[in-house]
User: Fold these one by one.
Assistant:
Number 1:
Amino acid sequence: MATAFKIAAKDNVATMLESSRPQEIQLRGEALQEEFLNLIESIELGHKIALQAIAPGEKIIKYGVAIGLASQPIQRGEWVHLHNCQSQLDERSSTLDLHTGLPGDTRYE
Amino acid sequence: MSDVWPGYLRSDGRKGIRNLILVIYTVECAGFVAHQIGAGDDDVHVIGFPGCYDNQYAVRMMLALGKHPNVGAVLSVGLGCEYTQPKRIADVVRESGRPAEWFYIQEHGGTTASIEHGRSLTASLRERLRTQTQIVEMTWSDLIVGAECGGSDGTSGLAGNPVVGAFFDLLVDRGGTAVFEEIVEMIGLKPILKQRAATPEASAALERTYDKAERYCREVRQYSISPGNFAGGLTTIEEKSMGAFAKSGTKPIQGVVQVSEPLSAKGLWLLDSVPDAFFMQFGYTNPNDTEGIMDLIAAGAQIVLFVTGRGSVIGSPISPLVKVTGNARTFARMREDMDFDASRVLTNEVSLKQAAEELAKLITAIAAGMPSKPEALKHREYFLMYKYQDTPSLEAGCHA
């Protein structure tokens, strides 16, 4: 069974320890309130999964602190990344390619 | 577990875990000769500064490294026409109670004659160290440990850095000193940094240092995060910052030191390696991992922990580098280079606290003389650069 790691008790996201298709996965860490969770889409190793529904403008919490704000409604079990989580400092990161992280705003001409 | 090991007492009261001869060259032109002088001798390490025009920051760093607790003696080698003065370096090292020698290559003939002269000087320095160094008991309160990360992946913020942070907590509890840097990887964490301050003075220093780093990132138009970080699952600079900051542990931060400044008290410290505002702003935030490691060694760290998820094959002169990885595959694939497998906290095999205790045990063995993996492989990478910190105003010196 694929696993994801939750760091702090307050976190509303966990980090995938393996890539997984949509299925039930197991949570790990020293601050767990629950043990299992359903992925509703495929998520890659190292990426984040929402542990609860998060409304636009709400904080995305990892390490017990806000690492960004939700820019879209997020469901429990959904992938959390550039498309639905916005940095509070770095505007450019939300414009990067969702899968490669590459910028589209640099001109090569 | 033994909490006492033998150390080398220096006249300033600090204790080293190695008793090395450091060859310092004062311009790139003397670099080859300097390395040949040290070649084949495990107790001779080499550092140097490439520029012919001198730089106050680099000179401070060479002096701090020459007086490092792991260094017992210094040989300073110049070509003979550069700005930086090897004699002045040897003088300062001698004032610290260590034997020191110096010479100019141009005054000793060519390559071969200079190497032979240098080797005869290191041989006599070795003899003086052998007969004169005082060996004493050393314990946690005599130890300064630095932490750096590089070649990071998703495991660094989950396992590698948190294990180092848990070890830092333990080190501070045992009366030791811990120092971390990479303030540019703490962008977004200003309130969290300030909450960790031990005193109002420390809080003000952390705020100043943070603001300088953020201004620097804006001026060079760069946060310390790359496409590979995003592809690997990091979504924001704040998230990357928290992963890097995890290596500081949870103890109060006593204050901020600049590069080459000695630590004035025990406990946890932040090292500020960001250049001060100056007309020459280079377009990077952290030039490479080795630069940060050298900054930590210049702060007096006798051992530096290096967290790498993807794997790295660097080492360091003067102070053993100890490599920690949170990635089980990296540990297996690069076993020869990796000192500690922190990935077991991700599988719930060990708790953070247990992993930190294991790391502490490894640190005492290395402090007692066991070579770290990069040390055994004879990795001695170093990097001294032009930088401006605490530098006189532009009006002093050049006029158009």
Number 2:
Amino acid sequence: MKQLLILSGKGGTGKTTIASAFIKLSNAKAYADCDVDAPNLHLIMDQPFKPVKTDYYGLPKAEINTGLCTKCDQCRQNCRFDAIKAGTHYTVDYYACEGCGVCEAICPAKAVSLKPAIAGKLMLYTGDSVFSTATLKMGSGTSGMLVAEVKKQMKRAASDTELAIIDGSPGIGCPVIASLSGADMVLIVAEPSVSGISDMKRIVETAEKFQMKMAVCVNKFDTNIENTKEIELFCEKYKLPFTGRIPFDPEAIKAINNALSIIDIDCAAGKAVKEVFNKTIKILST
Amino acid sequence: MKIAVLSGKGGTGKTLASVNLAAAAGRSTYIDCDVEEPNGHLFFKPGDIKYERITIKIPFVDDRLCNGCRKCVDFCVFNALAYVNGRLKVFDDICHSCGGCVLFCPEKALSEKEKDVGQIQKGVSENVTVITGILNTGEASGIPIIKKLLNDADKALEPVFIDCPPGSACIAMESIKDADYCILIAEPTLFGVHNLNMVYELVRLFDKPHGVVLNKCLEGENPAEKFCMEKGIKIIGRIPFDSELGILNSNALIAARKDKKYRDMFSSLLQIVTKEAQNETVINP
């Protein structure tokens, strides 16, 4: 299976819009949404069947048995995450606790135990194709681990598929790094703004650390031609393949708001994305 | 007064709103908690910058003292330690700095060293203090940087505007913990609404006073506006879809400093936010 991962650094540049177009253009039999913090791909990839849902357990959370607690304060002093609060009773801040187990191990009264905690939900749609997605529970950490599960679930269900399209998350941190693992190529969707350029450079630098094959395209290119040219020059300078420009297109917004992909309707953005797709797939297969 | 600006979805206009609100406020502090992709400094171009290294503690092993008992390996739930070929190996990148391995090594073979994960830059732009957290590329977690930024927020000149990272996970949660008021920025798309719902649940979970600013408003139906009506969420402002504003913003210029009409727009938004936040403190002191 070849995995094409779509990333951007900056949010809102068009990852999901482009991912959904790529899925339809390639007729991909496997795809996944790794933006577990704010997943959206399911909104435009209509599924005929209900998904199989599984609870995702992140790391466990500490719990203090106040009956056994002697308030010796050892747990609080040794917790690096400030997750233990002193007071009439010692309590654990559920959201701050990372489940490392230091408090449990250090408690002389055996008052602390680690309890399994649901940190999200995995969803797997199978039918004509396999679609793996998940939502992280509000305020949870361990999003990187959930991303790894999303990809694992997809691979298990579609092991003999040739191509998988993966919609990534913004940023450069743990969910992005987790999505890079196992990917064969990254397509970076850049936006022609000063912020977009700065963020693109940071995601390129990150992907380079993991020796990823990369290509760049520009979305909404006509909102700032000068900045689009700067992105193209950057790609030339660093020998990054540039796979095309997609225009800003109010029709694209309408398509999305009607739960359609931009290639489902006749629009300028849809035409441009086809070209980006062809060039990108060529690079992926070489 | 600390005001957090957030949105589930990226690219809805968090930086646009927080930068311009701070500029409209005059003497104020802008803090960029989007440490993975900080952009506010590109707008403010602050001068007189002071740098601060942000480090975390990671273990290192004294091979002469390690007897291979593997207690640390068994303890580490993050799998950041392995004993291979007669030597203990530490995987720096996945260590969460809990300190457990050091604490429980019976041979005292482990101690801690500092590892750089990023930096904080503090500078001045006109009368706005600009504080930016920057995560090093390749690092997984920006939380230690955000924690430090928010510590600084306690000492900062108010009002403080906190530009949050996208999403509703731990990193966004950390950024709103100490806020007095949360501004949720929404764009009029199906995606925008879905992700607005996520941050809306987050601010409710933490019982934070909040209001929505609708960005990129076009003529016709606005799915985000509809959502707010249905849920009874207060809409505190509207920013029109405006190519002039778009160009200023894509060139990293501060609209409120460039044009009186934008200055007026953000000043009146600021007044509403201030009033809302103060009302809340009266009701929920």
